[in-house]
Specification:
This protein has helices at 2-30, 34-57, 64-88, 94-118, 128-131, 141-161, 171-188, 207-211, 235-246, 252-265, 269-290, 292-300, 304-319, 325-338, 351-362, and strands spanning 199-201, 215-218, 223-226. The chain is mainly alpha-helical.
């Protein structure tokens, strides 16, 4: 009887695996149709799904996603220990190995499917450039000089409008003001409608600093998690960036740009300073690769208080530098490349190209 049940279980398991793999093939085929994804998924199915997740989990004061990640991490560690122990004791048989491999493939396939259905297909959408009818092209050194000059003016002006010593609002207030920023942005760009917030404090705290992450989005719960130990002048823009992920802008460069559109729409000058500070950093770093003399001169043109914040940011990165950072960054770089971002981590800087195209079309930044 046990043998019959085992055979029946095996048949059912392989049947489920076959169905899941077929689903993976369908997802791969769908991902080749960015127009379809933009029209039916990113601006349709996904928005309703994301809104549902934010309603379900948004009211909780803690991150369900972080708890799930922690449980998954401990489970993986437990399985590794069990398998290593079995290997050492030579208890691994051919049948046990096959069953373990099938179980692992089942879990991995299911996670892949959920990831793509809940959010991942957004990596293949037409995106913000399509929605704004922008045509980012390979920008020149002259383009970079012009955009950095404009950003220097914006970051200096916004910093001067703030008190000498910035009175930072509470984290909860920043989250509320980020929502307000999107409400203002929506008036000009209706597709940036953001309802039912779900922005949480990361449960990992300073651990994120060592990993190099200030914020991240959980596609399985629809929550945006913010590392609240980062320099506080960055938090408004980073929050707007993570909210952009919630709206279906999966690409880091697009989330950066949508975060920019919302932050500059805010009535709060702190949001303007936060976004212009970061975008100047992106643009001037890129200019440095082509014209280091001009890039160095640009830093000298910054307001004294802006320079203070740059030194604080540099000290922050130095404090949390660790020998494992390059390995972690390499894994994240590969993750981005697998998800249609060919330049990996460097894709964050593609926001400069979008910004240049936006300025050429609309005449402001």
């Amino acid at each position: 009887m046990d043998i019959v049940r085992q055979k029946s279980y095996n048949k059912f398991t392989y049947y489920v695996l076959a169905v899941l793999l077929l689903f993976v093939l369908v997802i791969k085929l769908v991902s080749l149709q960015p127009g379809w994804i933009e029209r039916y998924y990113s601006t349709g199915i996904y928005l309703s799904l994301a809104q549902f997740f934010r309603i379900i989990f948004g009211w909780l004061p803690f991150s369900i996603g972080d708890i799930l990640y922690t449980i998954a991490g401990f489970y993986l560690l437990f399985r590794v220990i069990i398998n290593v122990r079995a290997l050492i004791l030579k208890r691994i048989t051919r049948l046990l190995f096959i069953k373990s491999a099938v179980r692992t493939l089942l879990i991995a396939t299911l996670v892949y499917i959920c990831f793509n259905l809940f959010w991942g297909l957004n990596y293949n959408r037409l995106g913000i450039a399509y929605q704004l009818d922008l045509t980012p092209a390979e920008h020149t050194k002259a383009d970079l000089k012009k955009i950095t000059a404009l950003l220097i003016q914006r970051v200096n002006d916004s910093r001067k409008k703030l008190d000498t010593s910035i009175k930072y609002p509470s984290f909860r207030e920043i989250f509320k003001k980020s929502h307000i920023a999107y409400q203002f942005a929506e008036k000009r760009f209706p597709f940036l409608h953001y309802g039912n917030g779900s922005i949480k404090r990361s449960l990992y705290g300073r651990g994120g600093n060592y990993l190099g992450f200030f914020g991240y989005y959980n596609p399985f719960t629809g929550e945006s998690q913010l590392n609240l130990t980062q320099p506080r002048f960055l938090l408004p823009y980073v929050t707007c960036h993570e909210m952009a992920h919630q709206l279906g802008y999966a690409s880091e460069s697009e989330a950066n740009f949508v975060g920019y559109l919302s932050a500059i729409s805010s009535p709060d000058v702190l949001f303007h300073y936060s976004v212009y500070f970061e975008l100047f950093n992106y643009a001037n770093q890129e200019l440095y690769l082509r014209d280091s003399v001009t890039a160095r001169a640009n830093y000298k043109l910054l307001d004294t208080l802006v320079k203070v914040d740059f030194r604080a940011l540099k000290a922050f990165h130095k404090k949390y530098k660790n020998p494992f950072a390059p390995i972690i960054q390499s894994f994240y770089d590969q993750y981005l490349k697998v998800n249609q971002q060919d330049k990996g981590i460097e894709s964050y800087n593609y926001v400069v190209g979008l910004l240049i195209a936006f300025q050429k079309k609309f005449g402001y930044i």
